[in-house]
Amino acid sequence: MTTPLETAVAGRHRPRGQPAVDFRAVSRTYAAGQHEVRALDGVTVAFPAGSWTAVMGPSGSGKSTLLHCAAGLERVTTGQVLLGGEDITTADDAHLTALRRSEIGFVFQSFNLIGSLTAEQNVALPLRLAGTRPSTKDVRAVLAAVGLDDRRRHRPRELSGGQQQRVAIARAMVTRPRVLFADEPTGALDSTAARKVLGLLRDLVTAGQSIVMVTHDPSAAASADSVVFLRDGRVVDHAVTPTTPEVADRLARLKA
């Protein structure tokens, strides 16, 4: 029998062996007065489809820039970014907007829910913005998949932080995206709520979802299938199924 999470994830063609996101010699620079800041410096890394990859590094290492470039929120200066095999490096704004509405889901640390809308209305919002009439059945099915069907009429202020983040995940999943990007998804949560959100992300990956997550928390990173470490805009380390102490130790060495 198909589970609610499998139903939520279903619907996207995910070719075997093709990365969910592929960075090829990507650099991203910013002008800072008379100087140039290189946030990413020749990054080449592939994020496997149907897998959960955590991205870690010291402050200023390029984590958020990498995530934003992968999701088409920022343009790279040089190199290529491929999303599901499609080169989005030179895509125009209209095409990037369309991709973000259908192929990409994004979860933020601060939830970014609309306070005047119910949980159900927040989840339906991406479909409305894409010009699609939301199916009540589909929206409620996604809320049920994250364990919040009974809270669908509640507004954000009536929900706990963990519940708000689960609504945010449901909102990101309602379009059945090819890749789910998460920027510090447990950063604003207590340890109990964080474990529930990480458990939900694990269930999504088990059902076939691809996830790329930026985090500063070693225990959150250790929940992922693999961890990519950045320093000074470069990939400097990679770990597969590491423990929390191993992640913490590698991160401490990068900060030294």
From TrEMBL:
Q: Name one GO cellular component term.
A: plasma membrane
Q: Does the keyword Nucleotide-binding apply?
A: yes
Tell me the superkingdom of the source.
Bacteria
- What keywords would UniProt list here? ATP-binding, Nucleotide-binding, Transport
Residue ranges annotated for the ABC transporter domain, each copy included: 21-256
Instruction: State any single GO MF term.
Output: ATP binding
List the CDD domains hit by this protein, alphabetically: ABC_MJ0796_LolCDE_FtsE (cd03255)
Query: Key word Nucleotide-binding present in the record?
Result: yes
Family matches, as PANTHER family: ABC TRANSPORTER RELATED, IMPORT ATP-BINDING PROTEIN
Q: What is this protein called?
A: ABC transporter
What species is given as this protein's source? Amycolatopsis methanolica 239
